[in-house]
Amino acid sequence: MRQFAALAVLFWATCAAASPWDRDRPGDNFAPSVADACAGRFDHFPPEYYQARVERLEAALKDKPLDNALALDSVDDLAIALLRLGKHANAVIWLDRKLAPLEALRESDPRLAAIHLDRTLKNKAHCLLGRFKANADPADLQRAMELLRQAETSARHIHENWFLAREAEFRWSPPSVAGPVLPNVLGLNAESLAAQRGPGALSRLRLSGAIEHLALRVTHGGQGQDPDLFYALSLACAIEGRDMDAAFAVTRAIALVDGGARPGFRHSLSHDNLRKAMLAHLPAPRPEEWRSQLAGLEAAAAQWRADRDKYVRDRLARSEHPDTHAAFWAGWRETVKAPLAPAIPEATHEPEPIVGTAMFIGGGAMILFLFLVVGGMAIYFARRHPPGPNVDEL
Prior knowledge:
mainly alpha, 0% strand
């Protein structure tokens, strides 16, 4: 039972962050920046915000058919609002109710049905894991794992599903330290880090979208206390040549470990050696300097959140809500601007050329070859078919 409890805690730390699908989830082009994710500059709405949404949607959806996109989206909004309020059982009931009409929708609108099946599977897994955290029922944990696997199988083209499945494998079978790069949820190793770094490097490793995914996980997914996610985020940023973002992410990971958080891999390293190993992928690490810089961002983020929270509560007290009042955010003014993240002064990586040297030489050789072939053919045909005599010759 002790082993099961330890495993369950690790599994929860990963899968509970399957960033839920609701109207508050940032769009693909509005993912939080790495600096904001590390500093905590993102919304944490108060319970009143979600309670108002629950009351409105429960009344709107009661005894209504779930046969259109608006109704299906509303169920996701309602279920995740219930999850935020800790009402896991009610959230699961609503998501189960949503699954039934999806079967009929496959005939009339298969694309819409596929989209909502994927979202429902992940949202229900999230709710079951929330209930497991509260009640420690192994059946909820097992069912959540099945739903995540089903989501990956049914929609392999969605990057999030692939990342979540890899993270689940990382937690279920915690790896041991076996090299200079610590085990991580992205599966990166020393060879990955040794390859040429810079923009596009993650794409060559078939990890496109990893930075955005991890940033979303620790913000909207609510996993701002998971050192494994921040360590993986640091590795991904380092590979892309984003050294300052990598520095902030690993600084946040180390701060969590210093605060008592346990990484998901097995190791026998002392605390100091673990901290050194977490910094090994960055050139010339300066942990004290980075800690001071991130502390400044965190202080500004804390004040921003306080102002944001006050604004939301004041509007809610006037019975306004962004779901029903288009001008809800019209009066919002930022009193605390996000300080600019300092840049690393030295260029640690050469920029990747647009056209590689080998490609340039090969292309030039091909053009020269074509020129010689065309020229040779022109001479050959000119000799075989000389021009006729002109008037003077006649």
